[in-house]
C-alpha cells in the first residue's frame, strides 16, 4: 500500500473510506445494466462505485457498491481482475484501485508528490499489468503520460504528450502483430500551479491530439483544429473503431463566438473535422459516446444530449436536466441527469430510470464505464 499513515488516518477520520455494499435490485443479475461511476453525494461528499438499473424497464438507478473518496473523482477504468481504478479530477493528487464490494481498508491509494498532478483520466493495458494516467509537471506545466505498475501504482515510465492540459487518453486499434498506440487529447488551456484550474493567457492556447507508441511513448502523429480556441477533451470510438469522436469545449473571448462553437470533431486517422451543431450548445461538450445510430455528446449547459449521425451530421438535442455521464450498453445509449437517467436516450421514447433514494440530490460526474 502506498499511503502514508497520516493521510490514511485522516481519510478514515473524515469517513472518506466507507465502503458500503448495498442491496442488489430484486431483478435477476443478468438483466441489470451495471456502470462504474463517480458522483457528489447530497451531503457534499464524493463517491465512486457501481451503479445498476434493470435494462428494459423503469426500475430506479441504484447504488450496488460505493467507496467514499477525499475529493472529486473523474475518470474510471475497469481492470481484467474485476477491480476498478479512479483518478482525482485535475489538478488531482490521488489515484485509487478497489474491488467493488470489498471493505474500505482494502482500497489501494497512491498520492503524487508535489512535482506532479493527476489530470483526471486513467486507463489500463489489455493485460491489466499497467495503468496509464495523464499528468502535469507542476514546475514546467508540461503534460505527461505516466505508465504505472497496476499492482504498486508506482510510475515505471513517463512520456511527454507534446502539449499542455492533457486530458483523456484512449487506446488506438492495433494492426495485427503491432503494439497498440495511445491517443491523448491535449486540452491546451494554460493554467498556473498556484491558481489550480483558473485559466489564463487563452490567446496562447494550443490544443491537439497526439498518437504515442504504447511501449516507448514515441510521437507518431499530432493534429490540431484550425480554431485554436477549441479545446479537445473527451474521446470515444465508433463501433467499428475506425473514427474517433472528440468532445470540444470552446474558450473564445466573445460570447457570440462561444455560443456558435461546435462541440464535436471527428478524426479518421488522417485529419480532424468539425461537425457543426444545428443550434447553440453554449460551446460546451461534456461526455461523448457512440452507438450504431451515431454520436452523442452531453451538454449540461444546454440541458440535453446533442445527437449526430455516424458521419457527424446534426440530428437533435434530447432534453435532460443537467445531463452529464453517458454510456453504451447492449447498443443503447444511457444518459445521467440530476434526478433520473434515460435508457435508449436517442429513441423517440426513451425509458426513464428515476434515481433511488440513496442518490437523491446526487450529482453525477462526467463519466460512466460499463462494468462487467
Count the DSSP helices: 2
Approximately how much helix is present in the residues?
under 10%
Major β-sheet profile: 5 strands, antiparallel
End-to-end separation in angstroms reads 26 Å
Average pLDDT confidence is 89
| Total beta strand runs | 29
Instruction: Please report which band the strand proportion falls in: under 5%, 5-15%, 15-25%, 25-35%, 35-45% or over 45%.
Output: over 45%
Low-confidence stretches: 1-30
Oligomer type: single chain
* Major sheet strand order: 1-4-3-2-29
Structural class: mainly beta
Gross geometry = globular
* Integer-rounded radius of gyration: 20 Å
Concise summary:
With 372 residues, the chain is mainly beta. It has helices spanning 5-13, 255-260, and strands at 19-21, 32-40, 46-54, 62-69, 73-78, 84-88, 94-98, 108-111, 116-124, 130-137, 143-149, 155-160, 166-171, 181-186, 208-213, 219-223, 230-237, 244-250, 264-267, 272-274, 288-291, 294-299, 304-308, 314-319, 326-329, 332-336, 340-343, 351-354, 363-370.
Amino acid at each position: 500500500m502506498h499511503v502514508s499513515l497520516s493521510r490514511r488516518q485522516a481519510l478514515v477520520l473524515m469517513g472518506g473510506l466507507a465502503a458500503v455494499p448495498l442491496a442488489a435490485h430484486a431483478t435477476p443479475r443478468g438483466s441489470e445494466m451495471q456502470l462504474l461511476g463517480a458522483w457528489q453525494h447530497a451531503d457534499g461528499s464524493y463517491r465512486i462505485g457501481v451503479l445498476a438499473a434493470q435494462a428494459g424497464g423503469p426500475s430506479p438507478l441504484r447504488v450496488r457498491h460505493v467507496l467514499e473518496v477525499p475529493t472529486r473523482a473523474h475518470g474510471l477504468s475497469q481492470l481484467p481482475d474485476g477491480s476498478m481504478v479512479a483518478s482525482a479530477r485535475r489538478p488531482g493528487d490521488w489515484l485509487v484501485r478497489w474491488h467493488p464490494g470489498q471493505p474500505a481498508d482494502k482500497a489501494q491509494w497512491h498520492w503524487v508528490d508535489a512535482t506532479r498532478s493527476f489530470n483526471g483520466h486513467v486507463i489500463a493495458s489489455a493485460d491489466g499489468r499497467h495503468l496509464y494516467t495523464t499528468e502535469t509537471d507542476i514546475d514546467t506545466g508540461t503534460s505527461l503520460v505516466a505508465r504505472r505498475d497496476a499492482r504498486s501504482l508506482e510510475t515505471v515510465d513517463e512520456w511527454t504528450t507534446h502539449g499542455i492540459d492533457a486530458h483523456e487518453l484512449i487506446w488506438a486499434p492495433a494492426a495485427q502483430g503491432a503494439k497498440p498506440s495511445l491517443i491523448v487529447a491535449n486540452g491546451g488551456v494554460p493554467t498556473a500551479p498556484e491558481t489550480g484550474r483558473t485559466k489564463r493567457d487563452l490567446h496562447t492556447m494550443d490544443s491537439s491530439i497526439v498518437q504515442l507508441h504504447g511501449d516507448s511513448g514515441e510521437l507518431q502523429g499530432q493534429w490540431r483544429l484550425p480554431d485554436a480556441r477549441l479545446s479537445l477533451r473527451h474521446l470515444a470510438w465508433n463501433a467499428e473503431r475506425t473514427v474517433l469522436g472528440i468532445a470540444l469545449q470552446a474558450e473564445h473571448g466573445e460570447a457570440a463566438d462561444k455560443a456558435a462553437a461546435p462541440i464535436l470533431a471527428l478524426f479518421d486517422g488522417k485529419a480532424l473535422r468539425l461537425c457543426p451543431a444545428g443550434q447553440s450548445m453554449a460551446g460546451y461538450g461534456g461526455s461523448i459516446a457512440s452507438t450504431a445510430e451515431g454520436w452523442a455528446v452531453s451538454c449540461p449547459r444546454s440541458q440535453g444530449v446533442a445527437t449526430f449521425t455516424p458521419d457527424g451530421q446534426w440530428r437533435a438535442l434530447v432534453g435532460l436536466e443537467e445531463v452529464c455521464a453517458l454510456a453504451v450498453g447492449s447498443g443503447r445509449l444511457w444518459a445521467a441527469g440530476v434526478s433520473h437517467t434515460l435508457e435508449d436516450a436517442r429513441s423517440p421514447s426513451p425509458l426513464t430510470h428515476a434515481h433511488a433514494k440513496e442518490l437523491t440530490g446526487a450529482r453525477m460526474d462526467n463519466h460512466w464505464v460499463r462494468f462487467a
